[in-house]
Amino acid sequence: MSKTIVLKKGLNIPVKGEADLYVSKTILPEVVAVQPCDFNGLIPRLLVKEGDSVLAGSPVISDKKDPRIIVTSPVSGTVSGILRGEKRKLLAVLIKPDEEQNALSFPVKGSDSLSAEALKELLLNAGLWPLITQRPYGTVASPDATPKAIFVSAFNTAPLAPSPEFTLGNEFNEIQAAVNALGKLTDGGVHVSLNADNYAGTPFHKLENAVLHCFKGKHPAGNVGVQISHICPIRKGDIVWTVSLLGLAVIGRLLLRGEVDLSRKVAVTGPMAIQPSYISTVPGMPMKAVAPYYGGNAEGLRIISGDILSGRNAGEDGYLGFYSEQITLVAEGTETELLGWARPFRFNQFSSTMSYFSWMLPGKKYDMDTNLHGGPRAFVMSDEWYAKVLPMDIFPLYLIKACLAGDIDKMEKFGIYEVLPEDLALCEFVDPSKNSIQEIIASGIQLMLKEMA
Q1: Which residues are within 8 A (CB) of 411 and not within 5 positions of it... i.e. 6 or more apart?
Q2: Rounded-to-integer distance, Cα 110 and Cα 116, Å
Q3: Which of 272, 283, 279, 287 lies closest to 318, judged by CA?
Q4: Model pTM?
Q5: Is the N end or the C end of the chain the one with fewer CB atoms within 10 Å?
Q6: What is the CB-side half-sphere exposure of residue 278 using CA atoms within 13 A?
């Protein structure tokens, strides 16, 4: 067992609705969406038109900046629609799946002997290159870059996060094959971080040809950005790549079977979920397909693709994100509360600062909603508020203010290279000023991409 890194800062949010460990339904939806907005930094070029037939693994969109980077269809079927927004911005390509699924075949015989360049070409041609994310900035990785190292988080500490042992525990061989292959793309090795509390209970501690790390602590200990900051902090000029555990499994399926298989087990969670459990489906599934899990009536309900802290509000008419392994169903909090924060005897309200007597019930799970209990106001607190929940060696308050001001020099000084919005999601949760901190960080990253390109 590798040395354990103990994180003393963080916060676990005790929300109701954890998924039971069984697959309650397999969903091949009536339509699947390929959404360019899922891929940060990709400028989409449409490669298909309405009525075209596609196979699983057929190119659907490419990147205008680098046409080698493509996104492929997760299913075989017919292109049934092209959704566009303002100024004809491409929002989604809709594909109606065939009853019998078929996939493109890719030559992978002797994949263990593939060179680094041959492996890159295979991943690019199969449309799996977007599974690799580049830091800083969290964009789709550049095939021409050489990363300092590749990082994988093999556990998730976000609220109601799916269990990787349940969803991917039976795909150890695929994950091992992907680790072996990706190790050829960097001299710094593939670093896999494990949960110290479940080290013996996860099969991933047996991975070979990887540098294993153990982390112990509260959320966001499972965030790969937090792990990188303790293993190999990102400095100006550094490039590292990250891949999710699911991404490794998908790459491994390609290497072992020669097909693109983006199917996954998705946890349906949240206080409003009926029978929280797992479904087997594909990315791009319409959220209406999980209507039985919220009673079919989405009024007053927020349907999130991802976790409750950093997921995207997809809505009833939205679709499951490309990287999402979780759907969270939570009520829209619109009601006002008599006396508000001045009522100390609120045993049904969770407080991270022991403001209510709910701290006397440490094992209690809460029926949370989206109510902010107040509106945005000026930053008046010290950096201590955020530092308590962010186990990274940065100054979050000053970074946030630098992003608001668009001050690139200060953004660099205070840690913009090390973070993505999800890393500061807890800062947003505990923020008394009710600011949208993840949006502020995202705008700062977009400014850096624009000015530093």
Answers
A1: 399, 402, 403, 444, 447, 448
A2: 13
A3: 287
A4: 0.95
A5: C
A6: 19
In this structure, what token pair is assigned to residue 348?
Answer: 């049904």
Q: What's the rounded Cα separation, in Å, for the pair 179 and 192?
A: 9
Residue 40 structure tokens: 């940060």
Mean pLDDT of 400-421: 95
pLDDT tens per residue across span 253-307: 999 999 999 999 999 999 999 999 999 999 999 999 999 999 988 899 999 999 9
Backbone angles phi, psi at 304, to 5 degrees: -110, 130
- Of the pLDDT bands very low, low, confident and very high (cuts 50, 70, 90), residue 341 is low
Please count the other Cβ atoms lying within 10 Å of the Cβ belonging to residue 188. 17
Among 43, 145, 50, CA closest to 93 = 50
Task: Report helix, strand or coil for 147.
Answer: coil
Q: What is the pLDDT of residue 339?
A: 62
Confidence (pLDDT) at 1: 55
Give residues with Cβ within 8 angstroms of 245, minimum separation 6.
152, 153, 154, 164, 168, 175, 204
What DSSP assignment string belongs to 323-378?
T--EEEEEE------TTGGG----TTS--TT--SGGGG-TT--B--BS--SS----
Contact 56, 128 (CB under 8 A): no
pLDDT digits (tens, 9 = 90+) for 67-90: 999 999 999 999 999 999 999 999
What is the C-alpha separation between 416 and 413, in angstroms, rounded?
8
Q: Work out the mean pLDDT of the chain and round it to a whole number.
A: 92
The mean pLDDT value for 174-184 works out to 96
Take residue 260 and report the two structure tokens written for it. Answer: 């693109």
Separation CA 204–CA 166 (nearest Å):
12
Closest CA to 19 of 218, 277, 252, 299: 277
Widest Cα–Cα separation across the chain: 68
Residues 133/225, Cβ–Cβ less than 8 Å: no
What distance in Å separates the CA atoms of residue 422 and residue 248, rounded to the nearest whole number? 21
The CA-CA-CA angle for residues 135, 141, 147, to 5°, reads 65
Q: What's the rounded Cα separation, in Å, for the pair 245 and 260?
A: 16
Residue type, 106: F
Bridge-based pairing of strands 190-195 and 211-216 is: parallel
DSSP state letter for 178: H
Instruction: State phi, psi for 348 to the nearest 5 degrees.
Output: -100, 10
Enumerate the β-bridge partners of residue 54: 77
- Cβ atoms of residues 85 and 91 within 8 Å: yes
